[in-house]
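Render this sequence as a predicted structure.
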Amino acid sequence: MTETQYLSRRTFVRLAAGAVAATALGGLAGCAPRTLSQYEADQQADRVVSCDVLVLGGGAAGTTAAAEAAAAGADTILLEKMGWLAGSSSLAIGTLYGAGTELQRQAGIEDDPEGLLAYFLTRGGDKLDPAMQRFCAEHFGETIDWLHGELGVPFKATVSKKGTDPVPRGHSLDPCAQVALGIMEQRALDEGATLVFETAAESLVVDEAGAVTGVLARQDGELVRYDAREVIIATGGFCRNPEMIATYCPDYADVYTEVGVGCTGEGLQMGLDIGADYVGHGGTNGILSCPVAAGQSKLINPKALWIDSAGERFANEAGQTHDIYYAVAHFPDQAFYAVYDQKMVDALEGGLKDSFQLGMDEGLFAQGDTVGQAAAALGIDAEAAEAALAAYNALAEAGEDTAFGKKAESLVPLTEAPYYVLTMGVATHGSFGGYRVNTDFQVLDAEGQPIENLYAAGEVCCGTFIYDDYPAGGCGLNYSYTSGRYAGRNAAQAALA
């Protein structure tokens, strides 16, 4: 590994948002929760709080579950270990995938859940529980209509294509995912749910028969036993837990992450400790990342030329982000490089211009009279980079990318010196694996039987729905809202029976 490549990884960690908070939480990674009997929890607890439904985790899934449980008449408490609704859904751009929606009809798109099911089956769904694939296909559109039509969550009018799906099914929140989470939080409060922050569940409590009866949680230095008729775990994934990633997603063990800082896996471990079954096939969700600007920075410009560390073009720069992520995540240095010319640099404004200058100052970006000079400054083969740019410009002049199929509108020649080479990389944005659940979102044991009184929703149980590669942008967020809806309703019904 070259010195420049090492600096890139170091700077990713140092500059990306949330890195300091993630380090502070790192001590949690090696502390697996242990299961407590009712007697042990009673002996340790400083006080006891009781409710019908207890929800762990305040992302899209948990907040929705709490809102729906409370709306069904259950006395509901949500515990969030951070001081805010800290799920990864709060960081998402905000697309929900679904079929047969009113927004599609308004846009003149003919679609139905059967078509979506067929698509899911081409993206690994054929290797998973067919009942869950059908459930998601049939209810994802319903969830979008519920959010938009009943709850007034704003969506953009345009429905877009995502993944390899030929049908437009991507419904974008307006302006971003945070708006839906905020509306759901208010709904939960309006329905009477209690939201408790800075309270971390440490152990599930079980009775002699193995049924879950609540949790032991730490709040302001004291241990509180929360007794509940039903418990819903919606604590998200585990990308910030290096041991879990190494165990369950080893191909991505060294990939930098930008998920919510609370996604450290304790919620998943609690259920595994009492015999919950794990389902997952080693995959992760991910994005392309820029070391000087967390998130999907516009410096990752699809109109640039992208090369690998050998100086060779490797993808359609305007292609599917997730597919490029999977390729780059398996490069030895987990990096790729964007080639700009001076005209592209001159077009940068505001924060993008500042980020670009930071990259130059940090040595992550390089300038040269030729692309070869700039590439060589970053340890990239100069001759290969020159050849890649020449071939790319020839395709751009011809108006057709016969190498990777980039559309003509993004195929822009780069001819104005000096040239710049910008270091880029990838970041995980979610883990694909977790509890095995049924379509009632009950957590199952290794024999496929429900663990009494235990439900799950969202990323902590997404392995039942997603195989190893992301089907399309918006599937994970809709799975969180949909599973949260049904987990909350079902848990409330069981608690009040």
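Summary. Residues 475-496 form the longest helix (22 residues). Confidence is low (pLDDT under 50) at residues 1-32.
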